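Input chain follows. Return structure tokens only.
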Amino acid sequence: MIDFIHVSKVYKDNGAKALNDVTLHIDQGEFVFVVGASGAGKSTFLKTIMREEVPTEGEVIIDGQNLNKMKARKVPYYRRKLGIVFQDFRLIPTKTVYENVAFAMHVIGASQRDISRRVAYALTLVGLSGKAKNYPNQLSGGEQQRVALARALVNDAEIIIADEPTGNIDPEMSKDIVDLLEQININKKNTIIMVTHEVDLIKKYNKRVVTIKNGVVVSDTAHPEIAEAVLEQAVENMPSGYYYAPTEDAEIEDFLKSYGADEAPEGFKLDTSRIREDS
């Protein structure tokens, strides 16, 4: 499904080597935690999967497609396979829960009928069918992250990339989010790659753990307890606990339009008449 073959990435502006000869394989339907201190190379690792960055050396092959050789016009179509969940939720504050989730389908030109059907399904999947008409500021942090997850799932993405999805929510809600990701992984067979620094959270789940340090994969194990010492060292400089950082990204609409849209639509109008009145 996902193959990194001797991948290195050097940024031209400062000469920093973000990834150094990374080789790994992730099977379809696998759930993988990726850990490492700030600046270890985790973000670059994700960006190469999202095709925001291209390796300086080596190859990234996903579902048989060589991302190095992918033409720019094909990138939006490739990204339709991806569902992305961010630490800071990145919801559009002026749109309802329904509209936030529907936006991911709207930008790829889905029909109103498909939007209504898929959004209802995604919201039910994350337990928010009764919050469709609410706005983000009317939700708890955990609920906002569930909306972000529904948005990632609504286009039936094959790969879910979760970048510190529990960083802004409390420990109990964090477990709920990972439980939900695990159930989606088990029931729908989505491939899930979750970046996190929460060692205690990782210990609760028997998943594969890839540890990156200074751009190098220093540990890759299916047993978190074996990698505990490596984990502790990798995240020793990361903040503990949780904190709240509300969405303030005014460009989130433009970003989402770049993930799957042939051309960014000028307007955003949705028929919300089909939302149940008891929602």
